[in-house]
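step=predict obj=3-dehydroquinate synthase n=354
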Amino acid sequence: MQSITTSTYAVHFNQRAYDALNVHLSNKAYSKIFILVDENTHEHCLPSFMGQIQGDYNFEIIEIESGEENKNIDTCTGVWEALSELDGDRKSLVINLGGGVLTDLGGFVASTFKRGIDFINIPTTLLSMVDASVGGKTGVDLGPLKNQIGVINQPEMVLIVTSFLKTLEERQLRSGFAEMLKHGLIQNKAYWEALKEVTNFLYIDDLIYDSVVIKNEVVLQDPTEQHLRKILNYGHTLGHAIESYFLESKTHKTLLHGEAIGIGMILEAYLSKELLGLSDTELADIKSTFLSLYEKVSFSKEDITTILSLLKFDKKNSHGNINFVLISAIGKPDIDIIIPDELYENAFAYYAEQ
């Protein structure tokens, strides 16, 4: 596959990714190269990655704990301290080998260590390949609140090696697939239809490529999310609130990102019907598609009340308004939509219907 060029770097795929990395490392003469991993990528991804490195370099491995619950400033502090203790300097490189939690956190750590050092992202999950690979968003959560602390800063390159998908459980693959479905809903109905035909998530290289292209085309037009880039948040306003709530809940099973935004996309499709005229046919298609992939979740009135209270922390909000991305049809988004309060419970009721 051909590399995809963003505004400042390239996304390389499979063997081309390793070739580009080896050229980059030989040209840059980094003082030290740090590889950030979690316990899963340390075991399942690092050995094959190291086997592709050509040349003799000074590598240091830093391991963090996996999981959204560890995407916080405390983890950053541990990594910053490790970088300092291992003599990291401004000519060092951080290679982030992991999923979206790790690349978000690792990019933020690199962007702030000694006021910024180079980093390379190697996403190892389907979610991070199609979502975190483009756009330069880095950051961590503030308690249960998603991505409240961070900066937009671009990596040196992104390397997508799809063989890493074989290390994932089916649930993780399905979670990542939700972001691909979102790309269809906000930009390309034909792509949405093609995704609905997928039965095996391990052999979708071309569709992964298409998702990266779709996101890149949006980001190129609006790199700092002033206008168009907001469409990438479809399903995420309610989805992030649901994800945050379940992350902190003592009585509910934690939801993966894609599972939560899948619910968010159904809820926001209902709101789209009410406010922008999304057709009943497309609304039903969206609901049935997500429910065929993700287990249905039950919400009590108390759950819904708490989830809605979290909406005020959404990053798209401004001037006291909760701003939604909705769709008037599949592939046709609209931004900065204000939702009448009475529609929220109706949306959850629609989700709960058989």
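step=describe
The chain has two domains: 4-168, 171-352.
step=end
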